């Protein structure tokens, strides 16, 4: 979906950035995410370690490579936080596949590669929250089913803009 189609429809599809089991935010072992303080969404318990862009937009990658921020529409932010306790790894176990931060990416582009074995041994969890801020969102709809495996690039959520 291109930018013009988003504006006309008032909806944005968020595609799964990882292959893995779809989980509720309540399944994340971290109160910051279960409290929905930064927004709503779901989580993926990954079976592989390649993070793909969930939407077409510019991307901001934090220096530890575990946190990515997308803004497909002004004021709408999609946050991917790979794992729990991964900020303490200081980037170890993560490899940037996208060398130019801040550039426009297409949904499905490979952004980060993660060493699941290393991260499983060094962090609390690899469960990955995908959060959408709710500042400019009227509603979020889950398109995948909790407990089921979703493929990278499959529709995961739909957000309806205010």
From TrEMBL:
Mark the transmembrane ranges.
none
Q: Which Pfam families does the protein's record reference?
A: PTS_EIIA_1 (PF00358)
GO cellular-component terms in the record? cytoplasm
Q: What's a BP term from Gene Ontology annotated to this protein?
A: phosphoenolpyruvate-dependent sugar phosphotransferase system
PTS EIIA type-1 domain location is 30-134
Annotated InterPro entries:
Dup_hybrid_motif (IPR011055), PTS_EIIA_1_perm (IPR001127), PTS_EIIA_component (IPR050890)
Cellular localisation? Cytoplasm
* Keyword entries, A-Z: Kinase, Phosphotransferase system, Sugar transport, Transferase, Transport
Kindly indicate whether the keyword Transport belongs to this entry: yes
* Example GO molecular function: kinase activity
What NCBIfam families does the record point to?
PTBA (TIGR00830)
Write the protein's name.
PTS glucose transporter subunit IIA
Supply the source organism for this entry. Propionigenium maris DSM 9537
